[in-house]
Structure of Glutathione transferase, putative (AFU_orthologue AFUA_4G11770):
Amino acid sequence: MPHLPRSSPLFFRAFLASTFLFLDITTHQLSLTLSHIYSNRAYKTRTMSAPKSYHTQATGAAAETVANHSKESDLKLYGSCFCPFVQRVWIALELKGLPYQYIEVDPYKKPQSLLDVNPRGLVPALRHGEWGSYESSVLLEYLEDLEVGPPLLPPGDAKLRAHCRLWTDFVNRHIVPSFYRVLQEQDQQKQIEHAHELHSSFNTLIEVADPEGPFFLGPDLSFVDVQVAPWIIRLNRVLKPYRGWPDPEPGTRWSAWVNAIEANDSVKATTSLPDLYLDSYERYAGECP
């Protein structure tokens, strides 16, 4: 293969062709992706000339869920509508049908009630009666231990539960940081490298998931799905507009998983309209591709 300048669209095409195979990306899709990356200048000009800020109120279906959970409750979720770590816990609360109160937190105006639970003022945080804790994976384990509603970890199967915890750790160590590296990196070549890492991590997760799916363990949403779902829905809403992330190829295991996540009622109930994510993540993305 002849040497291509790293800034050349042909170089990026060659990279994508060798990297995105596990997603079954076709030549046509690659062309569409590259067309977006190299010709979407009007969109770039609009976003860079009119910077957006983070949102402090959910929109769409998530706004309805907030309204339905605004009354005082013994179980309180402190969250921010654009935060994927909050959405993990929020999905679990919706799935389990637990009564709870959702409290929206402005990241720059943290209430004392949140600081009493987490002195760092970070969300998500839970207050349950006189007890409180934080960190999304810890909170998901706590909700499981309440043994209310559908379980996310397989009951009575210690080995399969350990399997889920192992791949939850993989999501936190590989998929989550790779997502932000792709989003925040401004150098094109480094963006490509980070995109390769993220694709490789998703591929690894697919390889250990139930082959029939559509979810990680089979037909039902479970612990690993909840852990990774917020980042899957942000592929289309954040990485696609800002970094040209391609849509999944129809008929693949990856497509089945993405579609199942998008269609799940608890995920939909905690997801705002696309503009909320586009605006809220602009400060992380910097320039569009």
About this structure: The CA atoms of residues 105 and 111 lie 8 Å apart. The chain has two domains: 60-146, 158-284.
